[in-house]
Every structure is written in structure tokens, then in C-alpha cells.
Amino acid sequence: MVDAETDNGRQAHAIPKTLTAAVVYNPIKVDLDALKAAVGGTSGASEWTTLWFPTSADDPGQGPAREAIEAGASMIIAAGGDGTVRAVAEVVRGSGTTLALLPSGTGNLLARNLSLTLDDTAHSLETAFSGVDRNIDVASIEIRRADRSVDKHAFLVMAGTGLDAKIMSNTDDDLKKKLGWLAYAQAMVKVMRDKTQLRLEYKIDSGRNRVARVQAIIVGNCGSLPANILLLPDAAVDDGLLDVIVVKPESIRGWIAVAVKILWENGVVKRTKLGRGVRELSTDSVDMRQCKTLTVRLNRPGEVQLDGDPFGEMTGFRITVEPGALTVRVPAA
């Protein structure tokens, strides 16, 4: 506490500023008593007043985040999986409130792409209460449904339609709890039996409309997936750009080219300093681009996923990037 001198020469004690933090937590994935004890034992947390807001099956985080901001929180800690983080960020972006992460899910995609510590509550809380702020981009999506209604959402990592969306909707939640990200492999085997391609039209920025038959089209604000898969090697969370990958193999040879491109070139070669200067594999089975806006229209309804969560069927979407719209807490070091 700092002392100040009044006009008459007397010493007056300055009232310390109270910092307010809010924890928006998924009660299914978080042990509340253990988390409260961990917060109480975190250095730096004593300078904050901490409020607690649970999510629910009907509200994955948007409502609690709004309540937290209305209560004066200057920082919101999202304690849950990717769905909780995405829902909270949807409200926090552009508000001036900082988002801190306490990873508690299977994928923890944003935490992975920010190189934050996983499965270490003490370190995550230390980062929240004593870290520094970093501004990152947010992707905004308008999803058009079959009845012509439009949903508006935000996402932080990736959105997509095609194989990836089908995998998310076919992944067993109970199996995810037991096997983690390996549960997606079982869903992938099931989905790969479906030979149906998406027929769509897409437009990048102000370019021409492109018509294609694809297995998947994925838009990323970040590039990394679980299992150390680097899907979008040029993606950066703060470059003001979206990265797009269109997967469109026409044969077994095309699928081999896709695997070589993603697993070998992106996942191994591009991770090295020397490899980043190597000429890229040229294949018609994969199209990778960067943009600020992407518009997609399907010829029939298809599934869509946001940050690993299924979001139902749609007939198209429009995605734009909001540069630096979200402030996140990262380690001071």
C-alpha cells in the first residue's frame, strides 16, 4: 500500500486498487473445491478478488462470461475444454477483459497453439495471476442453415466442413474421457467408409468463385492439432490472416499425396529451419491459401465444426478475421 500526503501535510493511506478475476468453469470437468484451494495457494492471487461462474448444458460459457464482465472482472479464467474456451472468448473479445486458460479438456487446442502448459493447474494459475497479456486474432463465422436462418459465432483455432466435421460429430464422448484424442481415430475409421464428397463453391477474399468437389475444407486461425499434427504450417495466431486448406483427393494416389503433404511435409519438414526453405510438394489434392475472408456455399446441407465441437448442418458460411480482438494471458517469461 502506498502512502500519500494530503494538502495539510498529514499522511493519508491510499486505498489499494482491487483486481477482480472470474473463473468460468465446466462443473463436469472441474473439481471446484480442488480448484478453489489451488487458487488460494497461488502467488499473486491474493491481490485479486475471485468470483466463480459455472457453465451448464444449455449455456457453455457465454452467459457466465457476460455475468463476469458485468460484475467487474478484468480477467476471466476459462476452466474447461475447447468448448468452454470458445464460448467465453466469443463474449470476451473486444471487451477489454483478459482471457486466461486453465486447460481441462481433451484437445486444449488454443493452449497447445500458444505453447501453454497442459495438465499443470499450478502453472496455469500462476500464468493467469502473474503473467502478461498478448493480443491474438479471433475468427468470426456466420453459419447459414437450411431454413435460411443465420447463426453468428466466433472461434479461435479451426472451423471446417466435410471429413473433419463428420469426425467430430461421430466421436464418442465417453471414449474421449478414456482415450483422449485417440477417440478421434475410431471416428475417423468410421467416417472414411463414407465415400461421399462435398460439392461446394468457395470464394477467397475478393477473388473469383471456385467450384470444387472436396473431402474437407478447413479454416484455421492456428495450425496445430493434437498428436503433434501441424495441419497449417503458415498459420499464426496474431498475423491478421486466416489459413485455408482444401482437401480434394480423387483417388488412392491422391490420398497418399494428402498424407505426405500433411504428415511429412507439414508435420516434419516444415518444423525445421532448413525445411522451411524447401520447395513445397505440388499436388492437386491439397490447396492451401491465406486470406481475410472466406465464403463457402454447399449444394446440399453438410456438417460444420468449430474448435472441435459439432455445430450441426448448414448450407454455407462466411468467415472473417478480427485482428488482435482477444487479449490472452501468457507466461511472463
Q: How many β-strands, per DSSP?
A: 18
CATH architectural category of the largest domain: Sandwich
Radius of gyration: 22 Å
SS class: alpha+beta
Strand content: 35-45%
Tally of helical runs: 9
Helical residues, percent: 25-40%
* Mean pLDDT reading: 86
Number of domains: 2
Cofactor: Mg(2+)
Domain DAGKc: 65-145
GO molecular function, one term: ATP binding
Family: Belongs to the diacylglycerol/lipid kinase family.
Explain what the structure shows.
The protein starts with a strand and ends with a strand. With 333 residues, it is of the alpha+beta class. The model is unreliable at 1-17 (pLDDT under 50). Helices cover 25% and strands 38% of the residues. It folds into two domains: 3-130, Rossmann fold, CATH 3.40.50.10330; 139-323, Tumour Suppressor Smad4. It has nine helices and 18 strands. Its cofactor is Mg(2+).
Give the helices and strands, then pairings.
Layout: E1 3-5, E2 11-13, E3 19-25, H1 32-40, E4 48-54, H2 62-70, E5 75-80, H3 82-92, E6 98-103, H4 109-113, H5 121-130, E7 132-144, E8 150-155, E9 158-162, H6 163-170, H7 173-179, H8 183-192, E10 198-204, E11 209-214, E12 216-220, E13 224-225, E14 229-230, E15 242-247, H9 252-266, E16 286-291, E17 293-306, E18 309-330
Parallel strand pairs: 3-4, 3-5, 5-6, 6-18
Antiparallel strand pairs: 1-2, 7-8, 7-18, 9-12, 9-17, 10-11, 10-17, 12-15, 13-14, 15-16, 17-18
Helix pairs in contact: 2-3, 6-8
Domain DAGKc: 65-145
Family: Belongs to the diacylglycerol/lipid kinase family.
Organism: Salinibacterium xinjiangense
